[in-house]
Design a protein that fits this description.
The longest helix has 9 residues, at about 1-10. By secondary structure, this protein is of the alpha+beta class. β1 (about 15) and β2 form a beta hairpin. The chain has helices spanning about 1-10, 50-55, 80-85; strands spanning about 15, 20-30, 35-45, 60-65, 70, 75-80. It has one domain (about 1-85): SH3 type barrels (Roll), CATH 2.30.30.240. A six-stranded mixed β-sheet has the order 4-3-2-1-6-5. The radius of gyration is 12 Å and the shape is globular.
Length: about 80
């Protein structure tokens, strides 16, 4: 149940890059059920996000690898370079 609590608490947080650019809003987390590890963040892309276009996100929702997460506080901060890999 802990993973659902984590997802509920993080849902709705803004997702920004390490350069301060807004990517969007966190919708959900994808978890590897066997390993119990976080795999991806499901992010609703902000319509006016320039970084989303730069990274090639053309859909309204994108999956960001969890390895790209640098920090979580008031925002979820992701490493722009890790998203490109």
């Amino acid at each position: 149940m802990a993973k659902y609590e984590i997802a509920r608490r993080l849902s709705g947080k803004r997702v920004i890059t390490n350069r301060g650019e807004v990517l969007g809003k966190l919708l959900d987390l994808l978890v590897d059920e066997k390993e119990g590890t976080l795999e991806y963040l499901v992010v609703e892309i902000a319509p006016d996000s320039k970084i989303a276009k730069k990274l090639g996100f053309e859909r309204r929702v994108a999956e960001i690898p969890y390895k790209a997460v640098i920090a979580v506080s008031d925002y979820v901060i992701i490493d722009e370079g890790a998203v490109r890999e």
